[in-house]
């Protein structure tokens, strides 16, 4: 082996050198060159961002996904991705072209050094020539889509399936209809029902077998068809009474063998007595179980008189349709005659059990033999061969259309499947981002389509993300409706409630009326967590005030009702001085306790040095808001994209984090444009009352007077002026 050959073999098995970037909290492979794409089969699947995704609900051409999904199960997996990349890379001159995401395929990009490449290039030139674009150097999905559509609309489209429209004469159309009626149909490229060569062969094989089976009966008509064309109807009548007549003659033979057995073989008196309490009719089961007629040694079967009432109708049909044509107008059937009938119908039953070609029985023997005698089989086969002659051309157009779509969309899919590069890049959007939701002065970029809100919410709750599920409606002729899950990753959730409305813009720019139908509450920002304790206290106080006011209102109403009742009854209401004195004393104690607490707090605060006061205020805020902020920060660090996508059928293979800076970029808060003029004068602002200000000043003066009398203000002033510590100054008496 030469040195060049050895070096080539060595480079062929050399592992690919990958490049990774840290995005979203995990290492993501960087797909930058065609060599990166062609080596995807070497990349450990544990390093892929996802291992599977659905083919619906994504912002990428649905037909491209359909072509990649070879088995048609509605899911794209790693083998599907690798197969698509490998095929596209082998029919292009340079696999680097796949990274361009170009909407049109240059003809020079197709590798004509391979047989498949030459076929694709020839097909592309033929398509452009048919469209009147013979001088074009690029081809688009619209070009191949038009050709394929035109091909589907013609009589022959290369799929080997002939619909009714492919036949020109009525006889051939009638034959195709008969074939589809008997052995079923198949769909051609454009979805019309038709027949393939396999269906034609199956039909004619069944038809010939059916004709041969019927011919056997015609050749032995006396045994197999003793009643001619009416044998089938007669056989049905015979089968309806056969077992009962056999039972009758067997009993008679037994009575002839031993005359003493005749009495026990007939119904006993006790059996008749059991029917006394029963309403009898021809359908009474107990009566139908009796013998067909009276049992006697060697007795013939009566056909008119003495027949079990439950079997009269069936015996009458036996006489009219079988006995009379065979034995004349007789009122009984002998044992030997019945055995002869049984043998004839036994041959007929054996023939029925050998039946072949049952699927064409619905056409009737005459129509079947008419079809077999004609040249319909050759005519349909000729149409199928004519259609198959276009198979290579049609398949080439399909492969060309696939290549153009892969050239445009495959790299986009890879950057949302092998890695989440598009999601973590500000300039691009991921294929699972359905659009933008505008609501509550914010725009949310992370919106995904949802089929089942409740099912999605059960798993998506693990994402630690604040999610608002919206029902989006749009009227464009007929009403359209979709569901989305929008992630709020900036601002706060105080104003997000079920029933709030907004506008959703999909990726095509269409606007939808959006209404929140479900909310999964999680921390949105640390800023929100800072104010959360105060909002909870405010809500608690407001709730308590509302309850107190409602209770007082009920109490006043009850007191008023009681007073009115007392007046109406001319009774003097009693005033309990001790009771009201106790109430006022309790109120005084409460006010005193509150005042003492306030004075103690203010006194302690004023005992601090001037530079300690802001630190004390900051510390107070930290004590109140610190735990809430810490919990929110830890939760926000765990925000994960994976459950949101997994709930939609993805198989995310990494912990895709939505951290604080990235989350802030996904949800934008309304801001005034730079350079805007802003007037703070609001003519509808609430007018401030001067008495409130005066009341506040009065309260401050009273508090200052109390502190002055206690000597606290003088001590505080002395500390500020002398710079002494709190421990160096004695407290006044």
Describe this structure in words.
- It is a single chain.
- This protein is an alpha+beta fold and 733 residues long.
- It has 5 domains: 16-155 and 391-414, no CATH class; 162-219 and 367-388, no CATH class; 226-356, no CATH class; 435-522 and 639-669, no CATH class; 689-733, no CATH class.
- Helices cover 51% and strands 11% of the residues.
- The chain contains 26 helices and 19 strands.
- The strands form 6 sheets. The chain has an 8-stranded antiparallel sheet. It has a 3-stranded antiparallel sheet with strand order 7-9-8.
- Strand 8 (186-187) and strand 9 (193-195) form a beta hairpin.
- The longest helix is centred in the C-terminal third of the chain and has 43 residues, at 526-568.
